[in-house]
Design a protein that fits this description.
about 190 residues; alpha+beta; five-stranded antiparallel sheet; two-stranded antiparallel ribbon; 7 strands
């Protein structure tokens, strides 16, 4: 996130958005976004041309999105440290606002198991103890959704060297587990009735 410290730069007749960002070593989209978020009633920037624009607000402590991403990466744990960094289980609460209806609250636990396989780090996740408004759900739609999650659990993800999820591990096996699940097949049949 960019800081709100800025200078009010007086636009010269031969200035363009690109020429200013080049001199400031900035990305023109970031400058445009910063200016438009902070200019209040001043002219908004929409185009490359600055014709009719008197001033541009330029951040004094500019950090590009790439630099922000690099700083974030440095704060994330290395993949080899994930097992000691994460808890084995997390308690999750999600609140969903509904138009003209009462709020829904979902509570569940997520278990995470980290393992090293060859040159990859795999995080297996499993959701359990699902509650809807503090009750075990008994409607068909929720039962079907939970059965679908259970059919493929635990869900294995490949963790990148930077500690982020990069993809599913063994996607074909997940799909096959889903197809082979008899309980899910019975639920799908009952769902149609």
């Amino acid at each position: 996130m960019m800081k709100k410290d800025f200078i009010k730069y007086k636009v010269k007749p031969d200035d363009s958005l690109s020429s200013i960002t080049f001199r400031m070593n900035m990305n023109k989209y970031d400058l445009k976004e910063f200016h438009n978020q902070n200019c209040g009633k001043m002219d908004k920037l929409w185009f490359e041309s600055l014709k009719g624009v008197e001033f541009i607000l330029i951040p004094t402590a500019y950090i590009s999105k790439e630099e922000q991403e690099d700083q974030l990466q440095k704060r994330l744990p290395f993949a080899q440290d994930l097992a000691s960094f994460h808890a084995d289980e997390y308690n999750i609460t999600e609140n969903i606002q509904q138009l003209n209806k009462s709020e829904l609250e979902f509570n569940y636990n997520v278990n995470i198991e980290i393992e090293q396989k060859a040159a990859q780090i795999i995080a297996k996740t499993r959701q359990k103890n699902f509650k809807k408004n503090n009750c075990t759900p008994d409607d068909k739609v929720t039962s079907l959704a939970l059965a679908c999650m259970e059919a493929v659990s635990p869900i294995p993800f490949i963790i990148s060297p930077h500690g982020k999820i990069s993809s599913f591990a063994d996607h074909k096996t997940l799909v096959q587990k889903f197809k082979d699940n008899e309980t899910l097949e019975k639920l799908l049949i009952s769902f149609g009735n």
